[in-house]
Amino acid sequence: MFPLWKAVLSESFLGYISWCLYHALPPMIYYFPLQTLALTGLEVFAVAFFSPIFLVIGPFWRLANNKYILALLRLTTVGNLASYQAPNASIRLFILAAGVSSSLLVQTVTWWSGNSLQRFIRIWGFMLGKIMLLALRIWYTSLNPVWSSQAANTVILTIGFIAAVERIYSGGDRRKQEANKTGNAVRETVAHPHWLLSGIAFGSLMFLTLWIFGEVSLISRWAVSGHPHTGPDPNPYGGTVLLGLAHGLMLSFWSWSSIIYLTVTYSILFCSFTGLASSAGLLYLHTWSAAIAGNILAVFTMCVWPQLAGRFVSCLHPGKAMSTAMFAYVLELFFCVWCTAYKFVPGGIYFRESSHLLLGFIMLCIGVDFLTGPKKELSSIFEVKSNQKPLFRKSKNYIKLLLWLFVGVGLLGLGLRYKTYQKKLGRGVPKRDFSAMIWPFRFAYDNEGWSNLEGSANLLNQTGADFITIIESDASKPFIGNNDPTMWLGERLGFYTDFGPSTRDHTWGIMALSRYPIVKSTHHLLPSPEGEIAPAISMTVNFTGKLVDFVVAHFGNEEEDLDRKLQAIVVSNLLKTSSKQVVFLGYITSAPGSRDYTELIENGNVQDIDSTDHDRWCSYIMYRGVIRLGYARISHAGLSDSEVQMAKFRIPDHLDSYVDNDRTVTDPSQVPEDIHFNPRFGSYKDGHNYEHIHHFHMSTPKYFK
Questions:
Q1: How much of the chain exceeds pLDDT 70, in percent?
Q2: 541 backbone dihedrals φ, ψ, rounded to 5°
Q3: Is the peptide bond before 346 cis (omega within 30 degrees of 0)?
Q4: pTM here?
Q5: Nearest alpha carbon to residue 331 among 43, 21, 41, 59
Q6: If DSSP codes are grouped into helix, strand and coil, which group holds residue 516?
Q7: Could you give the 3-state DSSP secondary structure of residue 619?
Q8: For residue 622, what are the β-bridge partners?
Q9: Contact (CB, 8 A) for 651 and 685
Q10: What gap in Å lies between CA 179 and CA 111, rounded to an integer?
Q11: Residue 487 in contact with residue 503, Cβ under 8 Å?
Q12: In the chain, what is the greatest distance between 2 CA atoms, to the nearest angstrom?
């Protein structure tokens, strides 16, 4: 018998690779409609999740069970991680889809073939792979290392090939012929004929694990509110989510057979109620209450994983069961897209903001399967006719050891990140001048479909901005990447952060980063009767003793005239009721002088940073009670589809007697050097900058004196 520890470790790493592929394909598909704001037809690549349907056909099942074909599928699965190094997004999408298809074929074959101990370790390896993924994402500040850098991708690819070869040659894929037959493998377990119900429940459980527990920061982002009562920050409180998931898996080792029938019955009913109540709490409670509900849901989710997985692989029809699971998974994934992107998809109006229906359906599917099936944990199902009980006990010990090793690695990463971040905060020096900028950066993806966070951090750092608002920032959704650009940029730059409206509010997100402490903030959902929910934040920042208000907003699309009209009214009222010193940074999809622009200027009682700049459409900077010093527009250079706009201001010593600058100059030598924009972006330039570099353009930079 092959060494158990090596088997558990290899299967866990291969489980991690499978999760990486399943996480990566939806954002890669979504990238293309993100470019066009419409369905592109490439959504058809989601059929990669349906590859197990071929295994319903007898000859295909026997072919996939061939040890050479299975070895090829294993190596193909691992090799497709190299999609990260593909030359363009289209090729990457194709390779990723092939990887997902191969992985699901391998999972279906290996979960239903082989002896009980082999199957037990493979299924647990998949669950441990999820914990490993979360632990590694902690070290990469919510990013998956395999999709973050070529070096990490190459290392993981190499280790993955080693693990796959170990599985191929150790005996893990060289089964006796009779074990290749599905019937014999399933007869070693408690046979369970209801493949339809088990498939839907397992697919729903997989999607729940991706949607809400794809990264440990997500619970905090579902529960977030404005300053100072923001709820738990993802660092360090994401550690409680990781612990909750780990404890859920540990609870699954409890033997139901050792508890009297009545206790079992009440425990099952209570467990299902716990899942339903905690999911409702995560949806409808706020800050700490919602986070506690989310942590309870974490325990519940991983507690039912071994039992539902055991029931799932007890089904008599592996191809049908896995295909059903993936159909439920993909359907729920698309429903999740429809809940937020309803304006750009057919029938979206019927599903807008319906996450409560999706979560309710998932809990119903899990609960029904949980209540109606045999009440046994995974090893009990496999040990029915097994004479390998000592090996099962030993493998459980290795599984627990590896589980807590992953958790320990994750918690260590959180601790080190937290300590580093706290040291970076509060380094803003006292000064009267400050700079503010706005930038739409499309969920941290560049124009070629790759992560742009490293480039974004470099760009933001080079601008020297003290206050930054970023539009389209909520990447915590499963079809965008399940990551947290707000946390990533905040920790990298050493800025205080405000995530903006919760991810459960179905907005595209708006974040604020500040070099100086955020005293208070309020999150707003602007009126959006026709289009997608528009987010806004009103906040106060303490510039070393001088308080300045900021209002940042992302209006609806050009086509939604009523939405923009109502949103302009609400935001102008926010500006009007702000303090005497306020800066507005907004994406308002209206031309200078338009109805909405005029509403903000006149009713909001603010001034445009440069009323002579008529070549604007989306981003605007307005102000009141501060002195304008400079204005610049910087080309995006392919890092996003939108430019950076920024302005420099001075806080007057005497608010009642100051005079604003009204003269415009383009020669930086005519103003003090300390208010110059960074010369790294070149010099004054008329018209668009079409070069693939960040450069001043559109008749900027301008200075005021």
A1: 92
A2: -115, 140
A3: no
A4: 0.93
A5: 43
A6: coil
A7: strand
A8: 584, 608
A9: no
A10: 12
A11: no
A12: 92
What sections of 82-194 are H helices per DSSP? 89-112, 116-139, 150-169, 182-187
Nearest to 504 by CA among 295, 177, 348, 286: 286
Measured distance CA(641)–CA(542) in Å, rounded: 32
Phi, psi of 394 (to 5 degrees): -65, -40
pLDDT at 429 over 50: yes
Q: How far apart are CA 100 and CA 81, in angstroms?
A: 10
Q: Which of 473, 440, 356 is nearest to 617 (CA)?
A: 440
Distance between CA atoms of residues 379 and 531, nearest Å? 50
The contacts of residue 109 (CB under 8 Å, 6+ apart) are 55, 61, 64, 65, 70, 73, 318
Q: Which amino acid is at 667?
A: D
Q: Element (H or E) spanning 405, and its range?
A: helix 389-424
If residue 49 lies in a helix (H) or strand (E), which one and from where to where? none
Q: Phi and psi dihedrals of 582, rounded to 5?
A: -145, 145
Both tokens assigned to 112: 């239903």
Whole-angstrom Cα distance, residue 352 to residue 456? 31
At residue 349, the pLDDT reads 82
Q: Which two tokens stand for residue 400?
A: 């627990």
Say whether pLDDT at 175 is over 50.
no
- Residue 173 binned pLDDT confidence (cut-offs 50, 70, 90): low
Burial (0-12, 13-18, 19+ Cβ within 10 Å), 261? exposed
pLDDT on residue 32: 87
List, as one string, the DSSP characters of 523-539: EEEE--SSSSPEEEEEE
Encoded amino acid at 141, one letter: T
pLDDT in tens, 121-166: 999 999 999 999 999 999 999 999 999 999 999 999 999 999 999 9
Closest CA to 444 of 498, 487, 413, 410: 487
Nearest residue to 470 via CA among 438, 505, 508, 496: 438
